[in-house]
Amino acid sequence: MFTVSSDSVLSDFGGAQLDDSIARYKDIISQFEELTVKELAAKLSAKLPTVGTSNAGSEIGILQKAIKSGGRMMPIRKLFDSIPNLLRRMCPCMLMSPISVAQYIDPAYPKFDLVIFDEASQLPTCEAVGAIARGENVIVVGDPKQLPPTSFFTTNSVDAENHEKEDLESVLDDCLALSMPQKHLLWHYRSRHESLIAYSNAKYYDNKLMTFPSPNDLVSEVSHVKVEGYYDKGSSKQNKAEARAVVDEIVRRMSDEKLRRDSIGVVTFSLVQQVLIDDMLADEYRKNPQLEAWANEMYEPILIKNLENVQGDERDVILFSVGYGPDKDGKVSMNFGPLNRDGGWRRLNVAISRSRKKMIVYSVITPDQIDLSRTRSDGVAGLKGFLEFAQKGKNTLSVKQDAMSAQEGIERVIADELISAGYDAKCNIGCSDYKIDIAIVNPDNPDMYLLGIMCDGKNHLEAATARDRTVLQPSVLRGLGWNIMNVYVLDWLDNKEKVLQKIRAAIDTALENYRNKPAEEAVPDTAPKKQEISFEKEESVSALDRCQSYVPFEPYTIGTAEEFAKPENADKIKQAIAGVLKAEAPISRDSLYKKVLSCWTISRGGAAVKNAYDSAFSALSIYTTSGINNEFCWLSEEQAAGYEICRVTKDGCEKRGMDEIAPEEIACGVRLILTDQISMARGELIRETARLFGFARLGGVIESCADIGIHCALARGFVTVDENDKVTLKE
In the chain, how many domains are there? Predict the structure, then answer.
């Protein structure tokens, strides 16, 4: 017979130790996320060139000129074409509409690594392909159950003979039809009260969205206001009674200091009703200018939109004006504008899911006045159901059978014990598959829960990852205002009374905190705060400043000119060659020869001197590379292969001739220049390279040496050269 004590893992389990491990895990994740943000910022910042002295023909020079001219001298598209590499460094992520992509990004522009479409259900495929073609990979994000592209201005003609080439409604539909790899994002964050998304979840998503219950789950934040009035179907197509009710509610909210903290949005079924409400609100502003001042101080402007253009918007409080309904004679037409079209239910789904905290539905029509036998529109059927939901709450929703009854699990056992102890405990709180296992009703406020208890049961088992289970889900619940504690089955089986004592202590603490909550905190300010970011100005460091100083070899007297060619001095010549190489490598063979001879005070050697030097040089097996008219000597082959130093003359020291500088060293100078300038025409780069090494004027030798340096930089992978002979730093 299996027992807990017979298993070493189970017998050693302790809830307190697990909670400590979870707390450490959260700290580590938080530190990792913070470091990741800093690392990303550092990597992106490191790619930005320091703005020092810029060449007019370089990408940074072109941009600076465009900025100083206020954009008058160069169209944006031409500017983008002129600074393709700098633009990608400065703006690694660009937010653009498909039409902006077509206007400003040339198809020949280097492709983006990734193109992401948001709200793709609203984007026709014909408008998306241009942006898709400008990227290596694409992610298409959208909800096929939300608003499709508007078809108001489009024709319904279809080429029947080439139907397989016809686009579907949106790029999202085409991607789904192609069976592209899919990933479903099922967590819902917008609604801070589950009732705001409950109808859409049940009606259109088959309760597959994972929504999170709120501490005040016992009440609904979706309410219905029956307005006394009528829909002027015959002439104006307006519903003045509803418009007046909506505007009055806006005025009431703006006049209240606490209610003003919540942003306001108005959604209408028609453009006519939208314009009417907008005009009425403008009239109120004229009557009371203080209202407009309060509106301008709100952290989000008041939103007034119709079904066709509200997707993507959200507000704390949504006021919904149906508009349609009985006319002045009491007759009800089953024409509800956009809802009657194909896909009208998707427009309704968008409209009723815009709220974060509260939704108020204003209508002169009631659900029983909508006769579904007179229409086949899914959108109208959805409206009838939504009005019933707004009137009666979640009892009107169809719930999965397995979610209707509380599971006979540990949560039921614990809840029964708490009920026996005098607490009002309820199980399986929530409308979706995600539930709070046990919730304790607040004795001071029966509409709210005081404490949520999570057991290691179904929710614990079905969480995809440990991070979801221990970090993300609890953080969402706490963000909604829950007090959450964990209870583990093994702790309960080991010592039930100890666990009950812990629960009672948590309830007492939560109740005390509720009773002592300051009055000002009763309505928290949930407006998003602007994050202050400070930037420290970095001093400009030019390519010249980043170069090392060229320090020439200091000759010292070893012997006289007459002694140089004597056989007994061969080892001294070798030592002198090694000393010069150690000080200056890479160095041209001619310069090496002259500097070694200077140690014997020889300005020009004869045949005997040359033979003695060559013999010593050959004996050392020095690694050499070729330049234009010279060889260059290195300490080793490894030094030549990995050389990344650029030395220039500073502080009035001896200056080398351009042909005395190894191409590998010139290549390093080219890279330093392009680190600032990003890309330059070859001619401009040759001039800047010569200037870096101290040559104000170009000559044949100087120009050839600089060009050889550019070729070397290309061979070493420092730069790329396009068909227009433009040299660009390679990342």
Answer: 3
